[in-house]
């Protein structure tokens, strides 16, 4: 079953497109990674999927509906962890979690169980009544992650989650992703941490200048680049060389 469908999307910030005819899909229970150089269009792709940017061509379907067709259903079908944490300075950690629970109509009993388990997983039990200004960068990121995993949407959209988290935090995030995948949720994640992407992603989209250079499992990517034993790092470097060759051509 397909959860997210991105069909021939062209879009950008000005009239000049950043994304060119982008197509990919994510199935139920799949973890898909978007990989690409700085400026390749990863965050722009995510902004189109979450609906903060509109495609000039093509369409995006989440559980079979576009944002326009059913805004409430579309928005409740995903939760999003941005690259830079966006928090309310006047709300405590607990209040951030309560606000998220309210926005997603989460039952009180479920809220309590999930809150406790997330606090434990991310080792934040003692910080419940702290305000964001007193948190470190990694802790601020953990608040966003905990809010996202408090609810159970069909799709988690995560923009570069690993930078700033300590190794235990990274493991906790991977544990959460794995647990939700087992319950049937899907994940779209952008990252530069290629070894982790290679290990955990079911499929990978290699984005290059706003176009998909190759997509699929590691086996599919190796075949696309004709590099049978390549790691994701090797493939990425090969893609970089292609870009340099184009620039100097
Ligand atoms: N707010 C903006 N206004 C205009 N152009 C933008 C804006 N944000 C990004 N861009 C341009 O869009 C292109 C894609 O940027 P995007 O942020 O999607 O890249 P990215 O793949 O997420 O990169 P990074 O790895 O650095 O996070 C770049 O050429 C960038 O200059």
From TrEMBL:
A Pfam family that the UniProt record links to this protein: ABC_tran
Keywords, comma-separated and alphabetical: ATP-binding, Nucleotide-binding, Transport
Q: Where does the ABC transporter domain lie? A: 4-234
Which SMART domains did the record assign? AAA
Membrane-crossing residue ranges in chain numbering: none
Q: Does the keyword Metal-binding apply?
A: no
The domain of life is Bacteria
Q: Name one GO molecular function term.
A: ATP binding
What is the protein name for this chain?
A: ABC-2 type transport system ATP-binding protein
Source species: Psychrobacillus insolitus
